[in-house]
Design brief:
The chain is α+β, with helices and mostly antiparallel strands. It has one domain: Roll (Bacterial Protein-export protein SecB), CATH 3.10.420.10. 29% of the residues lie in helices and 38% in strands. It is built from 3 helices and 5 strands; from the N terminus they run αββββααβ. A 5-stranded antiparallel beta sheet has the order 1-4-3-2-5. α2 packs across α3. The protein starts with 7 loop residues before the first helix and ends in a 5-residue tail after the last strand.
């Protein structure tokens, strides 16, 4: 007889419970845009530098229901001056049932932020463009790698895998255009 491995969803199905995942709501929890040096910044002749900060927070709302917030902060500087600062907290409410703790944690750390990211990326781009700057398209984020790094940090700190996901990512680039 061949050995078979099951993931959390398949394991739940074999035990008679159907694993279910439900995206209940997607919304912007907070958004802001600042251009502290406008209108003078529009005449600057320097190459802009962009820095993206990304953070994720998971809150338990009730049994099997979670709010996942993906915070995106894009800062553009021109020389020593800040051209703009765009911040969006893109949120979603996700419901889980029938998943084992490990699979649920993985979905909160990978699948949920992957679901929210396109909405946050669009909101950032619209804020930047409405501020009088060229739209900025955030590059895709590898949430699988971020989650793997978070698991590595957890194991080093000997934290249980069921803790709330708190992944953060920082990217700085001087060659990106504003």
């Amino acid at each position: 007889m061949a050995d078979t491995q099951t993931n959390g969803a398949a394991g739940a199905a074999e035990q008679g419970t159907q694993a279910q995942f439900n995206l209940q709501k997607v919304y912007i929890k907070d958004a802001s845009f600042e251009a502290p040096n406008s209108p003078a910044i529009f005449t600057e002749q320097t190459t802009p530098a962009l820095q993206l900060n990304l953070a994720q927070n998971v809150t338990v709302l009730s049994e099997g229901v979670f709010e996942v917030v993906l915070a995106l902060t894009l800062t553009c500087t021109a020389g020593e001056k800040t051209a703009y600062l765009a911040e969006v907290k893109q949120a979603g409410i996700f419901a889980f049932s029938g998943f084992d703790a490990r699979t649920q944690d993985m979905m909160l750390g990978i699948y949920c932020p992957n679901t929210l990211f396109p909405f946050g990326r669009q909101a950032i781009s619209e804020l930047v463009q409405a501020g009088g700057f060229p739209p900025y398209l955030l590059q895709p984020i590898n949430f699988d790698a971020l989650y793997a790094e978070q698991l590595r940090r957890r194991s080093e700190a000997q934290q249980p895998a069921a803790d709330a996901v708190d992944a953060s990512f920082e990217q700085a680039s001087d060659s990106d255009k504003a």
